[in-house]
Design a protein that fits this description.
- Helices cover 25% and strands 42% of the residues.
- It folds into two domains: 1-30; 33-150, Sandwich (Jelly Rolls), CATH 2.60.120.
- A hairpin with a 4-residue loop joins strand 5 and strand 6.
- A five-stranded mixed beta sheet has the order 1-3-8-5-6, with no helix packed on it.
- It contains three helices and nine strands.
Length: 151
C-alpha cells in the first residue's frame, strides 16, 4: 500500500513539473501586455523581442539570472511618441540601468561595459515609464560568457 501511494505521489509531481511551465508560457504569449518573465536555463538563453504596451505610464517586467550567468545584453526599442525611461534593478536595490530613450530610438545595454565581472545572480525588475503610455519592445540575453554578451 505504501509503495502505491509513493508511486502515485511521484507520478503527480512529474505531471505538475511538466504541465506548469507550459501553462505559464501560454499565459505570457497570449497577452502581449503581460510582462514577460526571463529565466535563463543555459548558456546563450535569451528573451525574444517582446512587445510591452499599456495605456498606463509604468509597466514592469521581471526575470531571474542564475548565479554565474551575469553577462547580459539588453535591447530596448521605443515605439512611442515621447521619451521612454527604462530602469533595471536587482532585488537588493542595486540599479543597473537608468536610461532615457527618445521616441523611435533603440538602446542596447551590455553588462560588460560597467560590470566586467558580471551582474549579480537573482531577481530583477525592469520598469518602462512613459508619460503618455508605454509602447516599446525589449529583448534580453544572459550568458556565462563575456564574448557572447558582447556579440
Amino acid at each position: 500500500m505504501r509503495n502505491k501511494a509513493r508511486s502515485a505521489f511521484f507520478s503527480l509531481a512529474l505531471a505538475a513539473t511538466l504541465a506548469i511551465p507550459a501553462a505559464v508560457s501560454q499565459l505570457n504569449s497570449a497577452d502581449e501586455t503581460t510582462p514577460p518573465i526571463v529565466i535563463p536555463f543555459a548558456v546563450g538563453n535569451q528573451q525574444p523581442l517582446t512587445a510591452v504596451s499599456a495605456a498606463t505610464s509604468t509597466v514592469p517586467a521581471y526575470f531571474s539570472v542564475p548565479a554565474g550567468y551575469g553577462h547580459g545584453k539588453f535591447y530596448f526599442l521605443n515605439n512611442g511618441t515621447s521619451n521612454l525611461t527604462v530602469t533595471m534593478s536587482h532585488s537588493s536595490g542595486l540599479e543597473y540601468i537608468a536610461a532615457t530613450i527618445p521616441a523611435g530610438q533603440a538602446y542596447t545595454w551590455r553588462s560588460t561595459t560597467n560590470y566586467p565581472r558580471g551582474m549579480r545572480g537573482g531577481d530583477y525588475t525592469i520598469s518602462f515609464h512613459c508619460s503618455n503610455g508605454v509602447n516599446a519592445k525589449w529583448a534580453a540575453f544572459v550568458s556565462n560568457s563575456v564574448t557572447e554578451a558582447n556579440a
